[in-house]
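batch_manifest entry 22 of 60
target: Replication-associated recombination protein A
source organism: Paenisporosarcina cavernae
requested by: lab member K.T.
priority: normal
notes from requester: please return tokens only, no post-processing; we will run our own comparison against the previous entry in this batch. if the run fails, retry once and flag.
--- input ---
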Amino acid sequence: MHQEPLAYRMRPTALDEVVGQDAIIGPSTALYKMIQHGHVPSMLLYGPPGTGKTSLAYAIAGSSNLPFYALNATRAGKKDVETIVDEARLQGKVILFLDEIHRFNKLQQDTLLPHVENGSIILIGATTENPFHDVNPAIRSRCGEIKQLSRLETKDTVTLLKRALTDKSKGLGKQEIQITEEQIESIAIAASGDARKALTLLESVVSASDEENGVLLIEDSLLTQLMKRIGVFGDKNGSHFYNLLSALQKSVRGSDVNAAMFYLAHLLESGDLIAVNRRLLVMAYEDIGMANPDVGQRVLAAVQSAERLGMPEARIPLANAVVEMALSEKSNSAYKAIDQAMRSIEEGSIADIPNHLKDTHYAGAAALGHGGYQYPHDTPIGTFGGWNAQSYLPDKLVKSTFYTPVLAGEEVKKAKIYEKLQTFRKQAEK
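--- output ---
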């Protein structure tokens, strides 16, 4: 009989068997206590591949003792959903785990959602996409919990691997395996927080190892080969996907095009093209900004091309975008300005809008004292267009400065205009 993969066999059957994700489902969390007390809410589980979304759903089902059904939204049809609805009617209440929930179509929703709303079906949806961007609002509104799972820490992955090595019923415990602590940690680090990759690599290594006197001997050379073959990677510090994103951005910001290309290659190997594209767009405006404002549009074009092409061709426009950003002039002035303004508001710098800036497009505005706005276009100033000396900030904030130009690239011209206008403003105040 065909044996299921190790990663499948090692799925937890109860909450106390879940490794990692303590902030979401640890014993001290509200969700853990709710489930232990018999209440399972509908929820969305969001996170990268291998973080345990499916495993957590199975563990919740095991701890609740409710009938459990699993569907994949990319393959399930209306009939599959109707079958679950019929089971809910017969059994009173069931848990439905719906993988790839962001692909759930309207016909499926119309069949299922009333039963989720009345509580006969507890929906646990899983997605690698941001649920606030990609999951239908009708589904989202019926899920009381939205939980973002993170990649496992190296120590958690080590725990999972050791459990698989010693478990005699579901794992590899029936076979004597000679594997060192260093080799186990290497597998954990290489998996970059992906539990499925870690268990798959372990199973591959064990399957390929030679036996001597009834003991399987794990060789470093074999382990290295298999790590390369299945495309897992990492460093001695266990950096995972989000560390790679951070390293890419900091390398571009530091104008090191070689380092940036290295980290881009790592990220593209991970397969999460959407997250890479989002980060590149952020970088175009956060790190290049006003110094080279055209970069934003060119990076957007590269990202859209990558999404249309898919891998491996997507690497080409993205490489172009990364090289251009790494070697571009850079400014974070706009990014810092908005953060400074938001910080000012958070610290209580709220004041009334000057009357001449308030809306006057209604009867009675003048009676409230609104009006007196001077239209800048009516007072041309050189080749700039139009400007006048009226105040725009609230009176108590009139001396506030949030924007400080960076003298780089295209922003040099903007900086000169800014300084000139500041001079005019100071003269008008005298």
